[in-house]
Amino acid sequence: MGGVELQTILDSKLAVSVLALVGGGILGGLLTHLRRRLRTLEYTVTHDRVALSADDAVFGAVRVSWQGHEVTNLYSSTVIIQNPTQNDYQNMKFKTYTGDTILLTQFTQVPGTSYILGFSPEFEALIRVPAGQAPTEFQLNTYQHNREYVIPVLNRGQTAVVRFLTTVPGGQSGPAVWVDMLHPGLRIQFRPNIPHVHGVPVKTAVLVGLAASLVVLILCGIYVSNVWLAATVTLVVGLVAQLVGAYLYRLVRFVWRVTVG
């Protein structure tokens, strides 16, 4: 009888070991897959009107010019590229491009440093004008609607900024500037300019905060016998639900980035 029990225990331990080995392999494969997946950079674009040409019955005729050329309007268009991942990247090329919007002057920076962004060697070669010659129509059109830059280093949490003076011929709509990137293991996506609280979209913070408040309410109902204490705790959490939601969301994102990149 003792031999049977011993064999059962051994079989049980063997089965547990096999399951642990298989489970560990699956988990390890999953983590490896997650770590090898594409990381995502984010970019935002804002447009602030600088001047507008118009014929107004009250203010009269207003004309705007840039470098001696009359334009319909002028905007300050700011592109901000952010690295929200837990990785640092080097020598990243990215391209800004437009449709009807014309890119005029530019200002670039990596906030917190003294560095600016330079054009990629390919783009410099494309727009280079030999001494004594004028730019071709292709070069002029390329420069007005496309720019390609190189970011030497973009550490985790760091941003790169490109600010353009832009104009839209005809002025029927506002300017539009987009960003594209081709880099191993990286992609870039547009992040809408929506209200944020502590770096988290307000809508997301509110939803997470309400869920946290519900959890606190349930836990207080189960473990807190004093009704007034339970009501006070729940009320306080409910009043700061948006703040609680923002920090919980940031905590979850931080843990996710640290564990799976």
Number of strands: 15
Q: Count of DSSP helices?
A: 6
Going across the biggest sheet, name each strand in turn.
8-11-6-1-13
Main sheet record: 5 strands, mixed
The total domain count is 2
CATH class of the largest domain, anyone? Mainly Beta
- Beta-strand percentage? 25-35%
Structural class: alpha+beta
CATH-level-2 architecture of the largest domain:
Sandwich
CATH topology of the largest domain: Immunoglobulin-like
Approximately how much helix is present in the residues? 40-55%
- How many angstroms separate the termini? 53 Å
Output mean pLDDT.
81
Low-confidence stretches: 27-36
| Helix-strand string | HEEEEEEEEEHHEEEEEEHHH
Q: What is the C-alpha radius of gyration, as a whole number of Å?
A: 28 Å
**Outline type:** flat
Q: How would you explain this protein's 3D organization?
A:
The chain contains six helices and 15 strands. With 261 residues, the chain is an alpha+beta fold. It has two domains: 39-190, Sandwich (Immunoglobulin-like); 197-260, no CATH class. The chain has a five-stranded mixed sheet with strand order 8-11-6-1-13. The chain has a four-stranded antiparallel sheet with strand order 9-10-7-12. α4 crosses α6 (241-260). The model is unreliable at 27-36 (pLDDT under 50).
List the defining traits of the structure above.
about 260 residues; alpha+beta; Immunoglobulin-like; 2 domains; five-stranded mixed beta sheet; four-stranded antiparallel beta sheet; 6 helices; 15 strands; about 40% helix
Give the secondary structure arrangement, pairings included.
Elements (H helix, E strand, L loop, with lengths): L1 H35 L2 E14 L1 E3 L3 E3 L1 E3 L2 E3 L1 E10 L6 E10 L3 E8 L8 E2 L1 H7 L9 H9 E9 L4 E9 L9 E5 L4 E5 L5 E2 L2 E2 H22 L3 H13 L1 H20 L1
Parallel strand pairs: 1-13
Antiparallel strand pairs: 1-6, 2-3, 4-5, 6-11, 7-10, 7-12, 8-11, 9-10, 14-15
